[in-house]
Amino acid sequence: MGTVDSADSAIGFRSERGPILAALMLSTGLVALDSTIIATAVLSITDSLGGFSQFPWLFSIYLLAQAVTVPIYGKLADTVGRKPVILFGIVVFALGSLLCGLAGNMVLLIIFRAVQGIGAGAIQPMTMVIAGDLYTLSERAKVQGYLASVWAMSAVLGPLLGGVFAEYVSWRWIFLVNLPLSAVAGWMLLRSFRETAPRTRTSVDYLGAGLLTVAAGSLILGLLEGGQAWAWSSPTSIGIFAAGSLVLVLFVLVERAAENPVLPLWVFTRRVVIASSLVSVLVGAIVLGLTSYVPTFTQGVLGTGALVAGLTVGALTLGWPLAASQAGKVYLRIGFRGTALIGSGLATLGAASTLLITEDSTLAQVAASCFLVGAGMGMVATPTLIAAQTSAEWAERGVVTSANMFARSLGSAVGVAVFGAMVNSRIGDTDHPEPAILSEAVHLVFLAIAAMAVVMVAASAMMPGRAVVDPAAVK
């Protein structure tokens, strides 16, 4: 089943699997830190390079590259093993970070963020897949606390480092700091992770991956540039959306005929996978919406510095791991559906409270809303993923996990594109929008997030009521 004797049920750094757990935590930390550190430096980056209306691309291109490569990595992990995939991801992520730190203009920075995303597409799902291989369902409830602690530390360190770099050093260090972290993570995995799980060598569906990239990229392009570079009703806009839809249909046809599809269509026939993926789409959109625009709101409307703005939105990424560390105990007691409903309910309450945020709101009010949404995400995101994992055998687990991660990344990419279109429609083509106009624009984002949270409650109700059989637990 895995790489370490499953009879060893000890959890922690001193156990036989401890060094691998530490390596997984550090690898997770690369993506976790990157997700919290950049949002605080958006205004500093645009002040240096210009292009405020283009800044959603810094998130969208990264998330798009991550989303479309995740299924490829999932298939590769089920054929050649997990270790080579995650090590490749760390190397590419480090290269992208270096290039971002050296970027001389916004266009180059956006391109290099795509390189980072290609690396992150391997790191995040592989840490979850490896954990799924090493630990049984009951053990994962405990391991979840360790992995959640990484996000908790990143929730504090990310905004803090991002604010310090942006205000006192240089925004370039929010990327360059990844270089030593990547080196240590790669070294620990090389030293500790010995993989002996079964593997088979089969062809990879690169055509399907390419079509998926073009389809998703067309959608992101149309959403971000519509109303800016061209009118929504213009032939260009209509043509881009039509082309994206046509390529998406072609992708489905190719996947049906492919010997080893990059995103097997059978994943859409399993209720638990569909439900967990739908939740992931909404989680990705909601989290990126808040982490992208709360710092912008607090700096541009409330007049705070980058450091304070980062710590404010850090309440979201702090609430998430605190709740996630307890979610394992909850779903083992009341099941996946009940846990997901509790989480989505909390997230909806928090999202609704953002509608009360105005130009006169305090930082404490903004932080409280973010914390509540984060706590809800911690109770819904990981349990729904684990529910999907436990329904799959070893040879399917990479694909199932990657499908869930793909859904989250795609939700994030499309979500931030939609939010960017909303904001740009109000502020126009300016790098320094007036506080009143920016407040009105970001309020539209809060309204959309609240609506998405309500839909997430419905998606959570689709989850299985009790835990499905975990293949790892019965071996």
UniProtKB/TrEMBL annotation:
<feature type="transmembrane region" description="Helical">
    <location>
        <begin position="273"/>
        <end position="294"/>
    </location>
</feature>
<keyword id="KW-0472">Membrane</keyword>
<feature type="transmembrane region" description="Helical">
    <location>
        <begin position="145"/>
        <end position="165"/>
    </location>
</feature>
<feature type="domain" description="Major facilitator superfamily (MFS) profile">
    <location>
        <begin position="20"/>
        <end position="468"/>
    </location>
</feature>
<feature type="transmembrane region" description="Helical">
    <location>
        <begin position="202"/>
        <end position="224"/>
    </location>
</feature>
<protein>
    <submittedName>
        <fullName>MDR family MFS transporter</fullName>
    </submittedName>
</protein>
<feature type="transmembrane region" description="Helical">
    <location>
        <begin position="441"/>
        <end position="459"/>
    </location>
</feature>
<keyword id="KW-0813">Transport</keyword>
<feature type="transmembrane region" description="Helical">
    <location>
        <begin position="118"/>
        <end position="138"/>
    </location>
</feature>
<dbReference type="InterPro" id="IPR011701">
    <property type="entry name" value="MFS"/>
</dbReference>
<dbReference type="InterPro" id="IPR036259">
    <property type="entry name" value="MFS_trans_sf"/>
</dbReference>
<dbReference type="InterPro" id="IPR020846">
    <property type="entry name" value="MFS_dom"/>
</dbReference>
<feature type="transmembrane region" description="Helical">
    <location>
        <begin position="20"/>
        <end position="43"/>
    </location>
</feature>
<feature type="transmembrane region" description="Helical">
    <location>
        <begin position="363"/>
        <end position="387"/>
    </location>
</feature>
<feature type="transmembrane region" description="Helical">
    <location>
        <begin position="171"/>
        <end position="190"/>
    </location>
</feature>
<dbReference type="Pfam" id="PF07690">
    <property type="entry name" value="MFS_1"/>
</dbReference>
<feature type="transmembrane region" description="Helical">
    <location>
        <begin position="334"/>
        <end position="357"/>
    </location>
</feature>
<keyword id="KW-0812">Transmembrane</keyword>
<feature type="transmembrane region" description="Helical">
    <location>
        <begin position="399"/>
        <end position="421"/>
    </location>
</feature>
<feature type="transmembrane region" description="Helical">
    <location>
        <begin position="55"/>
        <end position="73"/>
    </location>
</feature>
<keyword id="KW-1133">Transmembrane helix</keyword>
<feature type="transmembrane region" description="Helical">
    <location>
        <begin position="85"/>
        <end position="112"/>
    </location>
</feature>
<feature type="transmembrane region" description="Helical">
    <location>
        <begin position="300"/>
        <end position="322"/>
    </location>
</feature>
<feature type="transmembrane region" description="Helical">
    <location>
        <begin position="230"/>
        <end position="253"/>
    </location>
</feature>
